[in-house]
Amino acid sequence: MAFFLTKEGRRKSPIALTLFFTVLFYCAVYFAAYSLLTEPLHRSFPIRDAAVESAVHTAAIALIGTGVCCLLFFLPDKRIVPYGFSASLVVLLIFVTAAAAKPAGRREIALQFVRLYITPPIIEGNLISWTVYRIFFKRRCEQEEEA
Prior knowledge:
Helices cover 78% and strands 0% of the residues. It is an all-alpha fold and 147 residues long. The mean pLDDT is 89.
């Protein structure tokens, strides 16, 4: 039981474990969003240039996934959302490291996968979640901690 208590006898914050499962939840949300929305977007909004179409559709799907992930702002601890997106940078680092370890012929494909499917959600998620947190919740959370 001492593992869960501080030296003063108070309960430790489980924020690291919470962020681990939050990042897993974000990965599942983005996987579902890409799986469900790629084909309908391609059929409904075709763009002549394949690279532009990929970029636009990826950004749109990442925005939708970020919106779903930001629903976690309804939890009591508002820090979970932006901290989770910051922690998801570890996932990006893992995939980039794995891509760099690939043989030269497959490295470019792996890096393209990272650029297309992992980087946009992390960038958009961090920008949106930290902006929302700072505008709406930071002052309120600081006031609650002081009280």
